[in-house]
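Dear support,

I submitted the protein below through the web form. The confirmation email said the job was done, but the results page showed an empty box. After a refresh the structure appeared. I'm attaching both so you can tell me whether what I see now is the final result or a partial one.
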Amino acid sequence: MGRYSSGKIITESAQRIELSYLFKAGYIQKGCKASGSLIWNNGNSIRIQSELSEERQFIRLAYQIKYESGEIENLDYQIRLESIPSNLGRGEVFYFICPRSGRRIRILYMCYGSQIFKSRKAYQNRIYYQSQICSKFSYHSVRNFSLEKQISKLEGQIRKSHYQGKETRLKERIRKLSYQKQQHDLQDLLIMVKRLKIDLPEISQKTG
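What the results page shows now:
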């Protein structure tokens, strides 16, 4: 796997391993061993093995790093998994345990010349979200797009909107994200209006 430049890196461009995807793809399965592989657009690949039993909970990563000198290094190590009870009152939620910081995380990153996958917070150099480096004119548009993806993903997980007469936490989360999206929609519109130098009161009078 090649090294990254010293410039700013965003979460979408860094090589990453998402726990939710590993479960969805069947690379991690409860009560047994499983395996699979990931291939990125740049051609880099990684072999994944996992075990999720009462005795052992981990994923094993195996891949190569190719240095500019032509030297190739083989990496093969484990990352521990840990679960906590779901706040929805049923089942459990799994996390990676970062091999450097010890934090519970759902996404592992490898960038800025790191040889291993670790948490975003474990890097000395910051891994940015797209919204953190975009211009002030595109900020609300970028956040709007991100929130839309989150909402769509969460809506696919809804089984019940209410439980015992109360809104479920998942439904409440979607409602709050939808409100945030509406606010960014509005701000994005106001910025566009300002850049185009449109007189809102004048438009209102003409269309009223």
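Response: this is the final, complete result; the empty box was a page-load delay. The CA atoms of residues 27 and 35 lie 5 Å apart.
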